Structure prediction request, 105 residues.
Amino acid sequence: MAKNKIKFSEDKKYHKWRRIGFYCLYAAIALAVVCIVLGQVFGMDSKPCLYSGYAAIVLVIWFYLINFFKWRCPNCHKTLPLLGPVLECRVCKHKFVDDKGNQVW
Prediction:
């Protein structure tokens, strides 16, 4: 095992919050699928379908709120892009990857 690999318990706070945000997004996708299946079986006006749909909407809102408030550049504290690799900050140009391609933050 590589020595420089960060364990889950030692992960930095902003990476932890980003992971929590994506867990909310994955749960929202799963609940949306459940809503569609329940809608086909019981009808779109059934309570389980409506509740799972509302829960999916709430989880997507949590995803955006977590990423807006917690996924920020450690240097200038501006928000970072939600999707894709983040190689540098768009505002202050702080680099998050060294010359070898390793993550440094």
